[in-house]
Amino acid sequence: MYRITIRFYEELNDFLPRGKRKRDVDVAFPGRRSVKDLIESLGVPHGEVDLVLVNGASVDFSRIVADGDRISVYPVFESLDILPVTRLRTAPLRDTRFVLDVHLRKLARRLRLLGFDVDYRENRGDAELAEISTRERRILLTRDRRLLMRRIVERGVFVRATRIDAQVADVLDRLDLRGSISPFTRCIECNGRMRSLPIDSPECSPALDAVPPGVRAWCREFHRCDGCGRVYWKGSHYDRLRRVVEALDVPPAGERSADRFKK
Questions:
Q1: Which one, of 52, 51, 60, 68, lies nearest residue 5 by Cα?
Q2: Which DSSP state fits 192?
Q3: Which of 56, 186, 227, 244 is the most exposed place for a label (fewest CB within 10 A)?
Q4: CATH fold label, 2-74
Q5: Three state DSSP letters for 58-79
Q6: Cα(80)–Cα(205) distance, rounded to whole angstroms?
Q7: Could you read off the pLDDT of 152-186 as tens digits, one per residue?
Q8: b/e string for 128-155 if b means 16 or more Cβ within 10 A?
Q9: Helix%, strand%, coil% for the chain, nearest 5
């Protein structure tokens, strides 16, 4: 039998039974086991882990646990760059490119509204999501903790909340992203980049064929998505979504793009 002591920190405790949270836990098990296998046997997805210390030294997930080891497991560090000391991956866990599972459509649209690069499509299976996350180095956001335990997943966040406003706040705060918000700079529908469409430009006239005549009569400021070609303007939907953005305490710089929204 191997006997070790392990402790999980901060939000990783959400995955543990109450009796094992925020304290040293003694664990006994037969046979050899890697750090990754040990962590996930206790219910914590390895994709949420950013640093593992064994007897005070940083190790990777393949490290084989030895009898008597003391293990400390940490989530993403919001304000510290731990790349020089972590041995888990070659790049920081906190990258602002995301891929979301099929259950998080509203969250995908809201994060795009805030300017984040979000890959989302309906009807994707777990294997495809895990592969995209790894290949494109995207943080996988999901409500399925088992998905985060897939071996190839390196970056992942388990979305704990069920209400959209709480989900957005959770992701922004846990990854320290409020300062990176750039609202109305991405297409909510396809994730493409938005750019200005001057009213007197040669490309404006054909682009506005899809805009209702009533809007063309009064609006003089348009933006178009580089991905799907959708045309956006400051319409009746704008005030509601601007209040959503303002409720998140967006930095003043975000106001530069605040008028880019389709009716």
A1: 68
A2: P
A3: 56
A4: Ubiquitin-like (UB roll) (3.10.20)
A5: ECCCCCECCCCCEEEEECCCCC
A6: 49
A7: 998 899 999 999 999 999 999 888 888 888 999 99
A8: ebbbbbbeeebbbbbbbbebbbbeebbb
A9: 30, 20, 50
